[in-house]
Design a protein that fits this description.
Elements (H helix, E strand, L loop, with lengths): L2 E4 L1 H7 L2 H16 L3 E2 L4 E5 L4 E10 L4 E9 L11 E8 L6 E6 L1 H19 L6 E5 L3 H13 L5 E5 L3 H15 L2 E4 L3 H5 L4 E4 L18 E4 L12 H5 L2 E4 L2 H7 L3 H5 L10 E2 H6 L12 E4 L4 H17 L7 E2 L4
Parallel strand pairs: 1-7, 8-9, 8-11, 9-10, 11-12, 12-15, 13-14, 13-15
Antiparallel strand pairs: 1-16, 2-4, 3-4, 4-5, 5-6, 6-7
Helix pairs in contact: 2-3, 2-11, 3-4, 3-11, 4-5
The chain binds nicotinamide-adenine-dinucleotide.
Length: 331
């Protein structure tokens, strides 16, 4: 058997956001049907270096795929010319445990995170959306943008706010040049969110920055940034009046948008509206009117990485094996 080393440049060539969204939606469906093995992420905290490392294993029996991702989050990496998030994925043959591929997981992480936001917007946002907002204009914002434009092609306006105004300006350029959106750079979160139909929060803040009064009736929020214990982007008063859909209870209660309000007893498990996997698998309806505020609390699931990595592996190895160089890991 062969082990393949799959670099980002190879992945970029074959992985489209549309395919990643299809794979991600199937991962949530498998999860909603109870067909996956996925222990919660485990964390190492590098307190001295303002960063952490997570380990994310998953097995989907029906897909015949298993794997594990190691991924860091170091919010100050921008200053060192490195991405905040970097990852490596090991794809394993569940029949023997043989390592099929060692893959770049950074691009896959960014793509599957965007894809989950797109899928959440498809199922949870109101029927007609015109304006999309990005609080935080970094790496994850770019893939949220790409996916939400596939899920909701009717969007025509955008606004963005970032504490780094230059990043917001660069991001606004992408919105208009790549997607034809009329995009403004706002001076505050409140200004950005005026008339918003979809809001994506992708910052690494540890204290709430989006307040109840910032969010108009009917908006859907993809809360992406809070993915470790103690992180929170949305104020608990906003969560209280919203229909909150999580990706996974164990992860969300430990490290998602809801982790701090749960710990502070400002929110209870019974306040939550559902899980995205169940919404997809059981066709359940979360929104009862166009005035509801919906929130998708994304912590990022190992199955999202697995289905995306598996899809890329199939395309590269099964279809283009002649172009790929295997290596003998046990030589
Ligand atoms: N839910 C998931 O599946 C998932 C996946 C990947 C990353 N993340 C999380 O998403 C966050 C962003 O990741 P990234 O790769 O885009 O990082 P990034 O560093 O590329 O971008 C973050 C952006 O947020 C801005 N920002 C920080 N604090 C802010 C504040 N208070 N107000 C406005 N803007 C602010 C920064 O200036 C930066 O432009 C991280 O917290 C990361 O852990 C979540």
């Amino acid at each position: 058997m062969d082990t393949f080393l799959i670099k980002k440049s190879e992945i970029v060539k074959v992985l489209t956001m549309k395919d990643c969204m299809e794979a991600t939606e199937s991962a949530f469906r498998y999860y909603g049907e109870g067909q996956v093995q996925m222990p919660s992420k485990s964390y190492l905290y590098f307190e001295d270096y303002f960063g952490d490392l997570r380990c994310m294993p998953a097995y989907i029996r029906d897909l015949g795929a298993a794997g594990i991702k190691a991924v860091n989050v170091h919010p100050d990496n921008h200053n060192a010319g490195l991405p905040t998030v970097m990852a490596t994925i090991l794809l394993i043959d569940p029949k023997t445990g043989f390592p099929l591929a060692v893959m770049d997981g950074t691009h896959i992480t960014n793509m599957r995170t965007g894809a989950a936001g797109g899928i959440a917007a498809k199922y949870l946002a109101k029927s007609k959306c015109d304006k999309v907002v990005f609080i935080g204009a970094g790496m994850q914002a770019e893939t949220q943008l790409e996916a939400v434009m596939i899920a909701r092609p009717e969007l025509s306006k955008a606004s963005t706010f970032d504490i780094d105004k230059e990043r917001a300006q660069e991001f606004a350029k992408i919105c208009s040049e790549k997607f034809g959106l009329e995009c403004t750079v706002a001076d505050s979160i409140n200004e950005a969110c005026q008339n918003a139909d979809i809001i994506n929060t992708t910052t690494s803040t540890r204290k709430p920055i989006v307040m109840k009064d910032d969010v108009p009736k009917g908006a859907h929020i993809n809360a992406i940034g809070a993915d470790a214990k103690g992180k929170q982007e949305l104020d608990h008063e906003l969560l209280k009046v919203s229909k909150v859909v999580i990706d996974d209870w164990a992860q969300a209660s430990h490290s998602g948008e809801i982790n701090v309000p749960l710990a502070n007893k400002q929110l209870k498990q019974s306040d939550l509206a559902g899980e995205l996997g169940k919404v997809i698998a059981e066709h359940s309806k979360i929104r009862s009117s166009d005035d509801d505020i919906t929130v998708f609390d994304s912590t990022g699931l190992a199955i999202q990485d697995l289905v995306t990595a598996w899809h890329v592996y199939q395309l590269l190895i099964k279809n283009q094996k002649d172009n790929m160089q295997p290596f003998d890991l046990f030589a």
